[in-house]
Task: inverse folding
């Protein structure tokens, strides 16, 4: 038997290794974003730290500064794209609007449905749940063409509302399933106790059960947000002028070259809102909110 | 406060009937205990009174108002659940005040009520804690507190003490009874613990498989069980039951099993050859180290000898388990006779306290 000290050293080593594996691509990506072009595209060797940091990539993509077309091949692509081609500010705004709205909508709608499915036994409730889940059986790309036509006819193509609806629809099944399992964890006697205390069905839901699963709601919202924030294919097909961040970044890959500096700068910047969002809800991401409700 | 009347109440889950046409009446202010083995339908009946379970057929009345179609929240009952069902995200204070908050009771009255309840229940120091920061007994008292601040018409308790340790259970038993004597609210209390039922109830209702076996005051049920099931269910240790046959010897009737010959009370409603269950409570089975001698009037009494198996001193009493003609019997005595396993023991039923049940119908004779 290894001693507990060597066990814990081993544990540390393993966790450091795992974290390193996961963090490396992101760290490299972030590092690239502050490298000058000469360091990104160095034909002779891989430049790791020995470069002069520049925030030029952020200035252009996040702050909307002018792209410097310096002579001497300082730009990766030769094309002189239109003014503002690398300005990511609009995309950040669009992505924020879409991700926040669709997260809110999906979570809200799924909450109501999940409570009903968890608490009320009505005809077809199981079938309904399976049907909702079946909406996720097809990958989004399989329905993209009909969706484009439908959205076009409804006037929803290339609108924020359109993508919000699309993302909400994709997120609802998973949110519903998750939230239902959280509701199922709350014993039904809690609702009944509240009802005997004089609560209406809605008061049971709102005042008693909802606060008890707020950890689950937070987790669900994080998942919805991350999906919407990173979703690519639907946003690509459903829009022309509105460009969410993932779509915008792909336009930095041009026929004449890839702007790795800009890609990594906008990409790194895009990690931040999700990160902040998770920090905000992380306090609620604790298990065991129903602890103490029942005798165990 | 209200009386509760239940008339032809039935409950069915699909094809399975779990309550069979129950008729019951609980007078205003009474403490009624529903007692029965696990799965007999006690909780179901209680939940139907609370309005949490739909009624398959029959009626429930509070006073003379039929409440079948009245929603739980409007029935003005308070319930303590088998698992407490506290609001985990609310402090003890908020848990107790929740019903008043919904009714928009004046904040000052809310505080007064909570203070009153917490002082009765000894929760003063815990008002700002969350349920998860309390012990099981304290949680149980919070559940009680939530009920008593309500001034309900009826209190419903579903095995509230079943998870407490023995000492706390005894203490809470007294507290609940005391509370009932102060508040005088009609109370329906579910338990499968016959000691709880005996000690707390004004009226005990014994259920089995969705039917009522007997109802009455604890002592009535203890002294005069209607049938074998009730006789065996009530009392701890349970009544000794010996399945035997009535025989006649020179004009006197005995209950006979193999070599065992038990005296029958005079005027017993039995006839020779009849199969009967002979019941005698342990405290009425007198034990001695030597054959007992009786006066001339008791000439036909016989002491039966057996062998001691297990001795359990409880303090005030000694429980002796013995083998008597192949039957396990128990005798309780307050005398400090020292028994050892294997000792010969002479047992003598107190004829005034013999219970006889028909061998076929199991109904008291
Ligand atoms: N939802 C249900 N569907 C089908 N049968 C049920 C349902 N709920 C309860 N039952 C059955 O009804 C019967 C009575 O249940 P109930 O909960 O009233 O028993 P109980 O007397 O309270 O038992 P315990 O002492 O174990 O709590 C049981 O046999 C149980 O199997
Ligand atoms: Mg029960």
Result:
């Amino acid at each position: 038997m290894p001693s507990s000290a060597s066990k814990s050293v081993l544990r540390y080593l393993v966790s450091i290794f795992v974290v390193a594996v996961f963090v490396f691509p992101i760290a490299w990506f972030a590092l690239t974003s502050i490298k000058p072009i000469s360091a990104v595209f160095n034909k002779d060797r891989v430049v790791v730290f020995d470069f002069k940091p520049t925030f030029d990539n952020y200035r252009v993509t996040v702050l909307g500064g002018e792209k410097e077309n310096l002579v001497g091949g300082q730009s990766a692509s030769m094309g002189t794209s239109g003014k503002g081609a690398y300005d990511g500010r609009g995309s950040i705004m669009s992505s924020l609007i879409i991700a926040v709205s669709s997260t809110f909508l999906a979570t809200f709608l799924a909450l109501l449905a999940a409570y009903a499915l968890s608490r009320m036994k009505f005809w077809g409730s199981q079938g309904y749940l399976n049907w909702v889940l079946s909406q996720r059986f097809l990958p989004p790309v399989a329905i993209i063409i009909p969706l484009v036509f439908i959205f076009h006819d409804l006037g929803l193509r290339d609108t924020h509302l359109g993508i919000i609806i699309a993302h909400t629809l994709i997120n609802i099944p998973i949110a519903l399933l998750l939230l239902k399992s959280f509701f199922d964890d709350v014993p039904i006697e809690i609702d009944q106790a509240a009802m005997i205390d004089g609560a209406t069905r809605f008061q049971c839901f709102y005042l008693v059960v909802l606060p008890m699963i707020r950890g689950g709601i937070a987790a669900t919202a994080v998942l919805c947000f991350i999906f919407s924030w990173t979703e690519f294919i639907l946003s690509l097909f459903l829009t022309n002028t509105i460009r969410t961040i993932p779509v915008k970044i792909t336009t930095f890959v041009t026929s004449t070259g890839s702007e790795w500096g800009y890609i990594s700068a906008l990409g790194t910047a895009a990690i931040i809102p999700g990160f902040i969002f998770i920090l905000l809800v992380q306090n609620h991401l604790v298990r065991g909110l129903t602890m103490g409700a029942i005798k165990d | 406060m209200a009386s509760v009347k239940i008339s032809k109440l039935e409950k069915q889950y699909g094809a399975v009937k779990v309550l069979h046409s129950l008729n019951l009446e609980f007078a205003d202010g009474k403490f009624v205990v529903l007692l029965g083995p696990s799965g007999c339908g006690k909780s179901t009946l209680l939940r139907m009174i609370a309005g949490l379970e739909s009624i398959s057929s029959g009626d429930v009345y509070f006073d003379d108002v039929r409440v079948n179609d009245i929603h739980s929240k409007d029935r003005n009952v308070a319930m303590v659940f088998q698992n407490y069902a506290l609001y985990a995200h609310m402090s003890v204070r908020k848990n107790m005040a929740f019903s008043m908050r919904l009714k928009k009771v004046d904040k000052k009255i809310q505080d007064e009520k909570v203070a009153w309840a917490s002082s009765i229940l000894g929760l003063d120091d815990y008002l700002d804690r969350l349920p998860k920061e309390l012990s099981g007994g304290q949680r149980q008292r919070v559940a009680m507190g939530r009920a008593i601040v309500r001034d309900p018409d009826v209190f419903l308790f579903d095995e509230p003490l079943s998870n407490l340790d023995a000492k706390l259970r005894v203490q809470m038993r007294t507290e609940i009874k005391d509370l009932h004597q102060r508040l005088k609210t009609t109370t329906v209390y579910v338990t499968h613990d016959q000691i709880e039922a005996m000690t707390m109830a004004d009226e005990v209702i014994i259920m089995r498989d969705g039917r009522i076996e007997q109802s009455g005051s604890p002592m009535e049920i203890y002294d005069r069980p209607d049938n074998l099931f009730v006789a065996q269910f009530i009392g701890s240790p349970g009544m000794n039951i010996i399945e035997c046959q009535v025989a006649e010897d020179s004009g006197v009737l005995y209950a006979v099993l193999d070599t065992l010959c038990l005296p029958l009370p005079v005027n017993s409603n039995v006839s020779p050859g009849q199969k009967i269950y002979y019941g005698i409570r342990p405290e009425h089975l007198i034990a001695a180290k030597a054959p007992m001698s009786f006066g001339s009037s008791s000439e036909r009494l016989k002491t039966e000898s057996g062998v001691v198996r297990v001795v359990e001193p409880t303090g005030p009493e000694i429980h002796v388990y013995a083998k008597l003609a192949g039957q396990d019997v128990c005798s309780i005595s307050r005398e400090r006779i020292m028994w050892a396993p294997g000792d010969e023991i002479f047992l003598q039923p107190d004829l005034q306290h013999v219970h006889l049940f028909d061998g076929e119908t199991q109904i008291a004779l």
Summary: The pocket of adenosine-5'-triphosphate (ligand 1) is lined by residues B 13, 16, 18, 36, 38-44, 192 (CB under 6 Å).
